[in-house]
C-alpha cells in the first residue's frame, strides 16, 4: 500500500467510524468498494454495539443526551436488534423514536459466555466455529434480517443493526450483506477487524459491570481478522461461496442479490462522478 492509498484508507476508516460516548463500535458500511469498482452507499446501513446504552429520558446526562442527538442525526428509520430476549430484558433496547421501526431477530440459538473462556482458547478457530453454528441455527432469522435490510435500502431509509458488542452477530450479518453486494473478502475481513478499535472500551465496560470478576478471557472484545477469514472459508468450503450458502440455506437468489446491490451500491460510473 503506497502513501496515497494508506492516507485514503485511514481517512475512509475514520469517516466510517462514528464516535459516541456510551457506544463504542458504530460505523457506516458505506464507502467500501465492490470487486467491480462500485461503492457501497454511505448513510444507509450502520453496524453498532448495543443501542440499549442510549438514553432519551429526562435523567440522561450531558454525554447521553449528546449520544442520542448524534444517533437521531443519522436519520434511522429501522433498527434490527440481533440479541436474545433475555439480553434485551437485562440491558434495554433502543429508546422509542417517532418513525423508527424496531425488529428483534435473535440469530444466535446457542448462547455462550466469552468472558468465561479459558486462556488456552484461541479466538480465531473458536469464534469462527460459533459463527458457523449461527449461520446454520439462525437461518430463519438471518433471512428475515436480510429482508428488512433489503426493504430499508430499497426505500433509501437508513437502518442500524446491532448485537451486544457489535462484533460477532453483527459481524456475521455485515459479512453476508457485503458479500451479497460484491465486496471482496479482504475488505469484508478488514471491516470486521475494525472492531479492534473498540476492544479496550468494550473490555472496560465489561469490567465496570463485573467488578467482582477475577479473570476474563484474553480474547474478549477482540476481533482478529483470522475469525472472519476462517468463517468465510468454512462457508466457501461447504457451499462454494458465501453466495452459495445464502442461496442454498437462506433462499436468496440472483433477483434478491441484484436488488440489494442496486439499493446499496453506486455503480462504478456513478461512484467516480461522486468522487470527482
How would you describe what is shown here?
This is Protein tyrosine/serine phosphatase. It holds the Pfam family Y_phosphatase3. Residues 136-201 form the Tyrosine specific protein phosphatases domain. One of its GO terms (molecular function) is phosphoprotein phosphatase activity. With 276 residues, the chain is of the alpha/beta class. It has a single domain, classed as Protein tyrosine phosphatase superfamily (Protein-Tyrosine Phosphatase, Chain A, Alpha-Beta Complex), CATH 3.90.190. The protein has helices spanning 3-16, 62-73, 85-91, 123-137, 139-154, 169-180, 185-193, 199-209, 225-239, 242-250, 254-264, 268-275, and strands at residues 27-28, 39-40, 45-48, 78-81, 101-104, 159-162, 265-266. Strands 1-3-6-4-5 form a five-stranded mixed β-sheet, covered by helices on one side. The protein has a two-stranded antiparallel ribbon with strand order 2-7. Helix 3 links the parallel strand 4 (78-81) and strand 5 (101-104). Helix 5 packs across helix 11. It is globular. The model is unreliable at 1-12 (pLDDT under 50).
Strand and helix layout:
Elements: H1 3-16, E1 27-28, E2 39-40, E3 45-48, H2 62-73, E4 78-81, H3 85-91, E5 101-104, H4 123-137, H5 139-154, E6 159-162, H6 169-180, H7 185-193, H8 199-209, H9 225-239, H10 242-250, H11 254-264, E7 265-266, H12 268-275
Parallel strand pairs: 3-6, 4-5, 4-6
Antiparallel strand pairs: 1-3, 2-7
